[in-house]
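@channel sequence for tomorrow's demo:
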Amino acid sequence: MSFLDRLDAIQQKKQSRLCVGLDPDPARFPSFLLGDHSLAASAMRFNAAIIEATAPFACAFKLNLAFYENFGREGPRVIDETLDRLPADTLAIADGKRADIGNSARFYAAATFKRHAFEACTISPYMGRDAVASFLDYEDKAVFVLARTTNASADALQKLEAGNGSERRPIYEHVAEQVSEWGADANSTVGLVAGATDPGALGRLRAACPELPFLVPGIGAQGGSVDDVLDAATPGPTLVNSSRSILYAYDEEYSRDFADAAREAARSFRDRLWEEG
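structure tokens (generated this afternoon):
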């Protein structure tokens, strides 16, 4: 079964478009989780509690690999133990924004899809197709290519216009066109990362790529609106990610209830993303 078919089946079963970002930041953990444990062990305890609390409402979990690399040689173990805890009715996305040439890309792809057995990943398009080709060879996997991101300085490049005459349009639209072409002969499912903080761009990307799956970051802590995302990105296969607004939803005074707070935040996002869509 293709990634897109699995995504659709899970979304219909759970009535959810929610992707929970598992970005374990020890500086924001409840103090009781730290104790005498290593940071990696504390992160695993944190992730385990978050997964158990939010999995009923999530169709995917996204691991930002930078947070795990921060744990040094224990990082890969935390990734594997986290993936082992994910229920079968969720998908695992590696958010590493990888891309490189030749053997480098080949080993990045193998680490993502073989070593850690993620179902999907994020990659950068800047170096062109040959830098992402290794990721496109994996059947039943998915690759989300950065098109319109949520960082503050993204406009400086992504909104630059290129092309002649009627073909002149922002770089992010050219990226989407290229990605659609890559997907035509790829073994993997190919989609776009398109942020919630620019609903106008999100809508233009959806109009240009009505069938591609979108991974949409930026709701919650980054200020993106659920209503704007649903108006712009649906209909069409859409995963909407929230990280900090779920992970750290707890009140400091009641930090031992951090998982309960995450559960309620995930439930709220799931309901809004489905019922309002």
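heads up for whoever presents: The longest strand covers residues 91-98.
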